[in-house]
Each structure stands twice: as structure tokens, then as C-alpha cells.
Write a structure and sequence with these properties.
Elements lengths: L1 H18 L26 E2 L2 E2 L24 E5 L9 E4 L18 H5 L9 H4 L4 E4 L8 H6 L9 E4 L15
Parallel strand pairs: 5-6
Antiparallel strand pairs: 1-2, 3-4
């Protein structure tokens, strides 16, 4: 199910990106000049009238992955390559667990009745997940408690809150038990 979702999402993003003026056409030689003569792709991330900041952790072989003591391991392959005579580059991505890297859990992940009712990640409203957000930098020696939440005095109308926590400082190969 998650592979199908990723395939559909990838196809939809490719189609959407091709029609959005924020993503210009690539020049015929596919190069973009840089100071050190290495090609650098132009990235313009726009959503509505604002800019998108990608808060995802980069996937690496040793990033934490649920159920693995050694990290994520190899996750990306190139079974077909233009360098080897194929008509296109075809990449293959496999994760040991969807609990790898930055992700959103489906409503049915922790509530069995939601799972039975089909509340998968594709039922999440992307307009809720994307847009202006309040960033709260949590002191490294604090937990996010009800008292802390009340003390934040989050203004009315704020729909999204991001918490920068000690989790990033503890980043390692294993998923911590305190999550």
C-alpha cells in the first residue's frame, strides 16, 4: 500500500511540477552554471504565496529506522541506468520500515478503529500539513507538557506548530525508546 502511495505521489508530483511556473524548463544541455563548474539544479519551492522550507531529514544508510539496530541500510538502487544503455534512469527505493526519517503517521497507525475504517496517509488533507507554522524551540532540558503548552500562549488562528526538540541532538542509528 505504501509503495503504491509513493508511486502515485511521485507521478502526481512530476505532473504537477511540469505545469507550475515556479519550476522552469530545463535547458537542453541540462547544466546550470555554478562557481565551481559543478552543475547545480535550480530549486524553487512555492506554495500559495509563501515559500516551502523542507524540514525533512536527509535519507542516509545510517539514519535511525524503527526495528533496525544498524540504521536504515541500503535503500536506493539504480536497476536501469542510461550509462549502461537503458533508455532512462530507473531508481528503486525500499525502506525496511516506513518509520525512517521524517514522516507523518496515518491516523490508523495508533487507533485500530481508524485503521479498520481505512484512514491511511492518503486521507490526510495536504492543506492542513502545508502552510505558515509557528516554530517553538524547546529548551534542551525540558519536556513538552500541558503546562509548557499553556505557557506558549499560541495566538488564535495558528494551525501548525513545529517543535524543535532534543531529538535532533540525539540523532543516531537507532530509534530511541523515549519516542
Amino acid at each position: 500500500m505504501s509503495s503504491l502511495f509513493l508511486l502515485l505521489l511521485s507521478t502526481a508530483i512530476t505532473a504537477a511540477v511540469a505545469s507550475i511556473p515556479a519550476y522552469p524548463s530545463v535547458s537542453t544541455d541540462c547544466t546550470v552554471s555554478a562557481a565551481d563548474d559543478n552543475p547545480v539544479p535550480v530549486r524553487r519551492e512555492v506554495y500559495g504565496d509563501g515559500r516551502i522550507f523542507d524540514i525533512s531529514h536527509r535519507y542516509t544508510v545510517d539514519m535511525p529506522s524503527w526495528g533496525s539496530k544498524g540504521g536504515l541500510g541500503q535503500f536506493l538502487w539504480l536497476p536501469s541506468s542510461m550509462k549502461n544503455g537503458s533508455r532512462s534512469n530507473n531508481s528503486l527505493m525500499k525502506l525496511q520500515s516506513v518509520h525512517s526519517g521524517t514522516h507523518v503517521d496515518a491516523p490508523g497507525h495508533m487507533v485500530d478503529s481508524y485503521f479498520d475504517a481505512g484512514f491511511d496517509v492518503d486521507t490526510l488533507d495536504l492543506d492542513v500539513l502545508n502552510g505558515p507554522a509557528l516554530l517553538v524551540d524547546v529548551p534542551r532540558d525540558s519536556n513538552i507538557t500541558a503546562k509548557v503548552m499553556e505557557s506558549l500562549n499560541i495566538p488564535k488562528g495558528v494551525r501548525r506548530v513545529l517543535f524543535r526538540t532534543l531529538n535532533t541532538d540525539r540523532w543516531g542509528k537507532m530509534v530511541g525508546k523515549e519516542h
